[in-house]
Design a protein that fits this description.
- This protein is an alpha/beta fold.
- The protein has 18 helices and ten strands.
- It folds into two domains: about 190 residues, no CATH class; about 270 residues, Alkaline Phosphatase, subunit A, CATH 3.40.720.
- Strands 1, 2, 3, 4, 7, 8, 9 and 10 form an eight-stranded mixed sheet that branches.
- Strand 3, helix 15 and strand 4 form a beta-alpha-beta unit.
- The relative contact order is 0.14.
- This is LTA synthase family protein.
- InterPro entries: Alkaline_phosphatase_core_sf, OpgB/LTA_synthase_biosynth, Sulfatase_N.
- Its main location: membrane.
Amino acid sequence: MSVLFLMLGVTFLLGELCDLFCRPRPARLLRGLGGLPARWLPVLALSGLLLLLTGAPLLALLLTAVVLLVLVIGSNLKNRLLSEPFVFTDLAVIPAFFRYPRFYLQAIPLPTRLLLVPGLAGLILLIIWQSSPALAPRLIGAALMGASLAVLHFTLPSMARKLAPRPELHATVRQFGLLPALLLYSWHWRRQTPPTPASALPASLAPEAPEIVLVVQCESFADPADIVPGQEGFAELARAQGQALQWGQLEVSGFGAYTMRSEYGVLVGRSEEELGFRRYDPFLTATRDRAYALPRRLRHLYGRRVFLHPHNLHFYNRIGLMPALGFTEMVSETAFTPADRNGPYVSDQAVGRRLAEEINRDGPVFCYTVTMENHGPWAAGRAGQASGRAAWHHHAHNGARLLETLTQALAASGREALLVFFGDHRPALAPLDPRAPQPARHTPYVMLRFSKGQTVTTPHSAQPVTLTPAGLNQAILREIEGR
């Protein structure tokens, strides 16, 4: 009985104490009582499982505390770098973490990284040393785990509907805590119904439709004047804006990461309001939306629909997802050589050469490109630069040069063409001040229309137009359909 009360009391305290350190913090000392079951029951279930496995109550509680601390510290690090705490879809990143650790290790302070291996080894030795063959504690652990999961199963639906009726991640974590946000949002996400395909009708065939459509999603591309006040912007971007059919700010949903959110928005065109709780990682369920995707809707206009991304296409399952969305050809990092790199990744210049091949080929083509050169992390010494910020600027300028290269190539081709160029998100160059307001997230976009070697403008082209990624999708469709 003492083991039972020990587990009940300590897990309650662990859930509340660990959550106190999670950001964003509540306005008052404790978070809302409505989220208490979702803060305590998962901790109780975890400790019950660990007690079942080890037979040692104190060891199970210690391991539970370690797991909670890792979760809270990881969420705080993410929030500090990307202005967003952990969300349930971050679990999908775990395989990617082991495959591409450099994408994520930048967020972990060096002392913590140095402690990871000895700390993990120490925990393993402690488990071996302190585990007990006693049966009674294991039975208590099984009972606690089963009971807490059963109660959570029956109470989670009402909590989700009452505490988190809408996806407002920062507000949910601030008011109820990290574990409730993970559980409640996951519950909503798993129960969202597939969208109606009513708007997924094929685009109408228009005689003036461009023969070439190039959509370029430029990694971590932003105007330097937006990143550092007073810094001069890229002349290439300014020239493109002066020739653009339409240009302005793209209000992307992520900061410093989440390329796939912008990618999904432009490719599929469903807004965050339509996505609901799927907005945090729509790639996991994007096959539901295949009828909305640009390459599928435009398949009668463009027999060749190319997806180009100079990276491993297994990342976020693009290898399976993009053909499902309607692409007929896939171009990955295997199409490039080590000489094509600038820094750790394939250069924008090499991507430009590959896109020039598409421009010079006969027949209509729709090509969606996701560049890679300016992917983080950025550090002093990268590409011969003195600082991480300088490295980002170097690669971003290469992105602006890619924009100008494609503009010149399409004009020289003399063909009917549409070029859409945008940044997927801003770079996470330094930790954010958790006390500061949410950082600005917008990136630039330009749409350039070419006809007989000249760019096409309208009286409205001189004024910027703010769009979301889904709005950019609709703008592309309107231009191709001649609406």
